[in-house]
């Protein structure tokens, strides 16, 4: 009878940018696979986008009642329990790749400058809201809102407000539903047939029947702000028309969170697709040198916590295989 040796390899350091569901899941799995993950998070705590959403997340099988905020807390707790190394308030200064799977990453954490040598880098920085081509994002006033959660904060009553929500995916429908429920009269403008999940579209049917909400085809082409209202030039495939509303809520989808990193990405010669998302292979590799992506940054995944958790685990497995091959 032969005995079999157990796995005995030196743990490799892997840096993960972003401490949301994807980054934490990736770190946890890398640790399970015998490596040393380090999460670098730009915010003051981990948990990612779910940490800002105080409502039930019904999209994770087996956890029907958990809220997104509770989920974010559980992810944070697991970082502690699993003894994952996490640095917060991180600003990435440079990433240098001398040869495949040899990186030097320079960063500040809480204003202290430092460097890490690592064998792989994972981007799990999530996404941020996309602006309209016809809007100068910096010029957006209080009357035109871009933050997908903005309508939930500050002014909680929208009684009598004439609201225009622009977009056809889940977030546009969530916002329209919330606004009607807090007293607004809402026009939801979709550029083409709505893409929101069927169960989310079903939630607004009663609002259409009660006359509080109309769903129209059209996209804004320009905005003219008056003192307390906005005139919006709209067009669909057949005609142009004008809407005057009290507030516009842009819910136009998302673009990668790569703020301040364009020079770094350029130097690493990483490629993007036409929508500005990383061009990845089917296993989450961004290039053959040892750079990977997971979570919302992977445009081919469903944009949800459950797929981000799965994507993080999948990328960890890919890294493990690549590192073993490069040994
Ligand atoms: C309004 C709204 C409602 C949603 N509702 C649901 C829902 O009900 N159910 C559901 O399953 N999903 C929902 N989602 C989607 C879900 O939140 C995302 O799919 C999920 O959070 C993606 O995880 P992630 O780890 O890829 O990114 P994120 O959760 O966005 O985490 C990214 C992390 O990276 C950090 N980061 C960003 N830039 C840097 C940088 N340069 N360096 C270091 N760190 C950085 C961020 O601070 C953040 O902590 C919702 C999203 C939105 C916007």
Summary tags:
7 helices; alpha/beta; binds flavin-adenine dinucleotide; FAD/NAD(P)-binding domain; five-stranded parallel beta sheet; 2 domains; elongated; 24% helix; six-stranded mixed beta sheet; 327 residues
Which structural category fits the helices and strands?
Answer: alpha/beta
Q: Number of helix segments?
A: 7
Question: How many strands?
Answer: 19
Choose one word for the global shape: elongated
| Elements, N to C (H/E) | EHEHEEEEEEEEHEHHEEEEEEHEEH
Low-confidence stretches: none
Q: Describe it for me?
A:
With 327 residues, the protein is an alpha/beta fold. The chain folds into two domains: 13-128 and 255-326, FAD/NAD(P)-binding domain; 131-252, FAD/NAD(P)-binding domain, CATH 3.50.50.60. Helices cover 24% and strands 29% of the residues. The chain has seven helices and 19 strands. It has helices at residues 21-32, 68-81, 170-181, 198-203, 205-209, 262-267, 305-326; strands at 13-17, 36-40, 85-87, 90-99, 102-109, 112-118, 120-123, 127-129, 144-145, 162-166, 185-190, 213-217, 219-225, 230-235, 240-245, 247-250, 254-256, 285-287, 291-293. A six-stranded mixed sheet has the order 3-2-1-7-19-18, covered by helices on one side. It has a five-stranded parallel sheet with strand order 9-16-10-11-12. Strand 5 (102-109) and strand 6 form a beta hairpin. Helix 1 packs parallel to helix 7 (305-326). The longest helix is centred in the last third of the chain and has 22 residues, at 305-326. The chain is elongated, with a radius of gyration of 22 Å. The two termini are 30 Å apart. The model has no long low-confidence stretch (mean pLDDT 93). Bound molecules: flavin-adenine dinucleotide.
């Amino acid at each position: 009878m032969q005995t079999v040796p157990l796995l005995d390899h030196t743990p490799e350091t892997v840096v993960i940018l972003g401490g949301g569901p994807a980054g934490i899941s990736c770190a946890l799995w890398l640790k399970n696979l015998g490596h040393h993950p380090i999460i670098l998070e730009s915010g003051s705590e981990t948990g990612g986008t779910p940490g800002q959403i105080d409502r039930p997340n019904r999209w994770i099988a087996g956890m029907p009642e958990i809220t997104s905020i509770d989920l974010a807390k559980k992810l944070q707790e697991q970082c502690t329990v699993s003894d994952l190394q996490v640095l917060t308030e991180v600003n990435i200064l440079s990433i240098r790749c001398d040869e495949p799977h040899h990186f030097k990453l320079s960063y500040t954490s809480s204003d202290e400058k430092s460097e890490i040598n690592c064998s792989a880098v994972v981007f799990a920085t999530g996404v941020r809201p996309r602006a309209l081509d016809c809007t100068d994002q910096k010029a957006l006033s209080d009357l035109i809102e871009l933050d997908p959660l903005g309508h939930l904060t500050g002014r909680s009553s929208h009684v009598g407000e004439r609201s225009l929500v622009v977009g056809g995916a889940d977030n546009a429908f969530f916002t329209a539903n919330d606004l009607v429920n807090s007293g607004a009269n809402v026009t939801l403008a979709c550029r083409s047939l709505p893409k929101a999940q069927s169960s989310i579209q079903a939630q607004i049917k009663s609002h259409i029947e009660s006359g509080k909400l109309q769903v129209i085809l059209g996209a804004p082409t320009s905005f003219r702000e008056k003192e307390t209202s906005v005139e919006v030039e709209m067009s669909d495939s057949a005609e142009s028309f004008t809407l005057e509303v009290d507030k516009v809520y842009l819910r136009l989808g998302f673009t990668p969170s790569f703020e301040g990193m364009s020079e770094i990405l350029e130097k690493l010669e990483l490629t993007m697709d036409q929508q500005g998302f990383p061009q990845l292979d089917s296993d989450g590799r961004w290039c053959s040198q040892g750079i990977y992506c997971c979570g919302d940054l992977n445009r081919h995944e469903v944009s949800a916590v459950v797929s981000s958790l799965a994507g993080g685990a999948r990328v960890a497995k890919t890294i493990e295989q690549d590192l073993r091959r490069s040994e």
